[in-house]
Amino acid sequence: MVEHSAAEKSDAPRPPRAGDCESDDITQLILDDHEHFRRAFARLDDLQAEESLPAADLSEVWDPLADLLDVHAVAEEEIFYPQLLRKGADARDETLDAIGDHNDIRDAVHDAARRPVGSQDWWEAVGRARVANDEHMAEEEREGLADFRQHATLGLRESLGRRFRQFMAEHHDARDLDTSDKDPERYVDSRVPPDQGPTSTTTPRADNSLGIGSLKGR
Ligand SMILES: [Fe+2]
Ligand SMILES: [Fe+2]
User: Fold this and answer.
1) Ligand 2 center to residue 57 CA distance, Å?
2) Weakest mean pLDDT among 48-52, 99-103, 181-185, 198-202
3) If you ran DSSP here, which 8-state letter would residue 142 be given?
4) Is the backbone of residue 51 left (phi > 0), alpha (psi -120 to 50) or beta?
5) What is the DSSP string of 78-105?
6) Strands, E, within the chain: which ranges?
7) Is there a contact between 105 and 133 (Cβ–Cβ < 8 Å)?
8) What are φ and ψ of residue 118, in 5° steps?
């Protein structure tokens, strides 16, 4: 007889897998990941409401969610945003915002990894990851994804989607990826097509360590 954990019995959300979705359109695949994030955070709400809360049950939901948040951001940075910079109408500002948001999400996810699962500090870090991710997903869906749908052909979106799907399948956890923060200006300037650059008016940073965060409010 197969033993199931409490999380499995309650239909804990599982990370998306290659072949889950019919569409190859990268904008659709990104939306699918976003929906998964929302459901996984909602599952943590359910667990938080339970009287007895084993750390293993929290880890069963959080660990794959944390991995997917990391891998999803790197996949977008490797596959989606370089093409948005080529095709989008307002791509530079959209990409600067997105990389800064990814840094905020990464900072909170990695902070949670340093806290005892289920502790107050852990919940605080998980909460920060959720707020940063919720805000970023809404903006990304309204701006970058919408811009790309309006200006990139379906053929390009589908070919990028196949690469995105393969990347997610090959890096289902984030251990083999560089998930450190990226300097948004340096990222954009290194990927903008030569005929569209140079775009930066700032002095390049000497490092790309944690804490770069978002450009919002600067
Ligand atoms: Fe995303
Ligand atoms: Fe993103």
Assistant:
1) 27
2) 198-202
3) I
4) alpha
5) IIIHHHHHHH-SSHHHHHHHHHHHHHHH
6) none
7) yes
8) 90, -10
- Residue 148 in tokens: 């790309």
Token representation of residue 21: 């979705």
Overall average pLDDT of the 170-195 stretch: 89
Domains of the chain, residue spans: 22-195
Note the pLDDT tens digit of each residue in 1-35.
334 444 444 455 555 554 455 789 999 999 999 99
34 CA distance to ligand 1 centroid (A)?
Answer: 6
**Ligand nearest, relative to CA of residue 78:** 2
Q: Which residues surround ligand 1, an ion (CB under 5 A)?
A: 30
Predicted TM-score of the model (pTM): 0.82
CA atoms of 40 and 34, how far apart (whole Å)? 10
Single-letter code of the amino acid located at 203: T
Query: Residues 188, 193, 198, 201: what is their CA dihedral angle, to the nearest 10 degrees?
Result: -20
Torsion-angle region of 146 (φ positive above 0: left; ψ -120 to 50: alpha; else: beta): alpha
